[in-house]
Amino acid sequence: MLLCSGFLVSSGFISGCSTNSYVAVPTITPGSAVLLAGQTVQFSAAEFGNPVSNAIWSVNHVASGTAATGTITSSGLYTAPANTTLTEVQISAGDSVYKTQSTPVQVSIFQPNHFQPGTVSPSNNPLVALYTFTAPQGASVQIQFGTTTNYGLTTWSQQGPEVGGPVQILVAGMRASTAYHMQASVRLPNGNTVFDTDQVFTTGAIPASILPILAVQQTAGLNPASGVESLSLVEEASQTQLTAVVTDLAGNVIWYYPMQPSNPFPMKLLPNGHMLILFSTGMIQEIDLAGNVISQISWTDMQQGLIAAGSSLSAPDVMGGSHDLVKLPNGHLVFIAIYNQTVTTASGPTTVIGNVLIDWDPQLGPVWTWSTFDHIPLTHAPYGMPDWTHANALLYSPDDGNLILSMRNQNWIVKINYQNGAGDGRILWHLGPDGDFTLPSGQAPIEWNYGQHYPVLLGPNTAGIFPLMFFNNGNNRLVDANNDVCSTPGFMACYSSVPIFRLNEYTSTAEVLEETNLAPAFSFCCGSTNLLTNGDLEYDVADDIYTPNVSYIQEMTPGQPPQLVWQMNITGQLAYRGFRIPSLYPGVEWTQSAIATANANAAAQPARSSTH
Q1: Coil, strand or helix: which one is 134?
Q2: Per-residue confidence (pLDDT) for residue 253, from 0 to 100
Q3: Does the 119-202 domain belong in CATH 2.60.40.10?
Q4: How many CB atoms are located within 10 Å of the residue 527 CB?
């Protein structure tokens, strides 16, 4: 600050002085720091964006500082004292030309045996707490939580700011209307760990009227795999029940996003800890665990983006995102959208429902597009018109940068020449009847994919020779070499299954390595599947014709005969996808014993009757 013509000025420059000149006041970057004893931080001073030449640096208003308060060099490198009980000092920079002084910035000295406790506050989601802890430079913070001080569950570990400062972690995975203890665990750069004081947070209630109707059974003596259940549900009647939920294996809701009556089509946990949700209305949102919207792409955004990019796609015919999307390592989103075209057939003009893929750069909008109308003949329509392709799942292949697309109404899974946005969109292969692969004698045609959903790359390879698993719904499955169709008079009933194929892209051969036959179950649509960490198989039978109004998810042991380990029934809502995720935090696995410990004092949520 400087006194000029009787006025105190601290706005960064001085005007109205007798010289009618502007005099700069230095601004220091960074604006604060949190250090351990002996740590260093580089400060800089600028005026109107330009570095201050020959700045005079001070600690607690003493030029260059002292051994007791820490020292600072002429270039602004501050070193905290090696041994001190100080909790803070102030750094200032002076301009030797204009004789002005910056506003001091604070450096906090973190004392491992005596520090400011963290704070816990509510978030937008009544089941999610916001834990804030001020950590020193180089430290990482993780939160442990549970209904007792035995805790049980942990969040992921988050690194603090480069120069130290507040670390905010959303704590999720708790049941409604329950008091939880939580505590920050702080790992210091020297490898030591310090613990915050115990904090208590009580979650909010969820109205019973909006809870999904869930029922769970577990086989005695068999232990389910780690993790919690992610459910993308479709409303069929009430339009009020939650559709985007995560539950524990007892059926208690531990996270949700209130988006009903829209449905998550689907919902995915991202590597950055956010949820990516494609609404059934066509909108895309990336949200954090508290439900704060990080980014959004509306149906209108899609159409306007295509127009602005000069896309060959007819923007008004893009009907919004649908069924699946992937976030690529470069931050782009690639999503499926419905694309309507009017074509002339023998019976006259007909509107055909196809699909497009749109590669969306967060900064530029659409940068690559692909259309089924450009790459698949209209004459290939196993289920007829107008819903000609019905794309329902999308995968990214890291090994070759290509895309794998499931098209239910084509009975095809295809690989598309994407090459990380540089590909020409050619279909490199078609898996399924009338496709490019051949099966060993005796496996075709009954083992081909029919009306399939949710292909899964089992890795580590995604190109060349690699395994591929999917939920084979079995619609109109051909059962013999004469191409007789299941459930026609005199032939076996249609059934669903979960096969694991080994694909060889070099020889265009495929082989069913193993298959779980779900007969008599026949899920007319939807579904998902995955291999769990303990080797069990999990699958979502979403629309079994023999259990109307009830979707069910099963965990089964490997081998023959498989044994049922765990089952969840969902009544009144269709489980478009339902599968196990390790936890609500990337890289963190919650075992069932840890979940039980964390909820030792928690009451189960009241079950909703299926008659409601």
Answers
A1: strand
A2: 98
A3: yes
A4: 31
- pLDDT of 75-134, one tens digit each? 999 999 998 899 999 999 999 888 999 999 999 999 999 999 999 999 999 999 999 999
pLDDT at 5 over 70: no
Give the pLDDT mean for 383-412: 97
d(CA 515, CA 273): 33
Q: What pLDDT is recorded for position 607?
A: 62
Q: How confident is the model at residue 173 (pLDDT cuts 50, 70, 90)?
A: very high
- Cβ–Cβ < 8 Å for 536, 562: no
CATH class of this structure's domain 2-109:
mainly beta
- What HEC string does 411-465 produce? CEEEEECCHHHCCCCCEEEEECCCCCCECCCCCCCCCCCCCCEEEEECCCCCCCE
Q: Which residues contact 417 (CB under 8 A, 6 or more apart)?
A: 402, 423, 424, 425, 426, 427, 428
Comparing C-alpha atoms, which of 313, 308, 321, 193 is closest to residue 266? 321
Q: What are phi and psi of 279, to 5 degrees?
A: -75, 150
Asked whether the predicted pLDDT for residue 375 surpasses 60, the reply is: yes
pLDDT value of position 348:
85
Per-residue tokens: 114: 């005596």
Segment 555-561 mean pLDDT: 92
Residue 565, Ramachandran bin (φ over 0: left; ψ between -120 and 50: alpha; else beta):
alpha
Distance, in Å, from the CA atom of 413 to the CA atom of 432, rounded to the nearest integer, reads 7
Report d(CA 55, CA 44) in Å as an integer: 9
**What are 595-612's pLDDT values in tens digits?**
999 999 998 776 665 443
Identity of the amino acid at 123: S
User: With contact defined as beta carbons under 8 Å apart, do 565 and 596 qualify?
Assistant: no
CATH 2.60.40.10 region(s) of the chain? 119-202
Q: Could you give the C-alpha distances from 131 to 153, 162, 330, in angstroms and in order?
A: 15, 19, 30
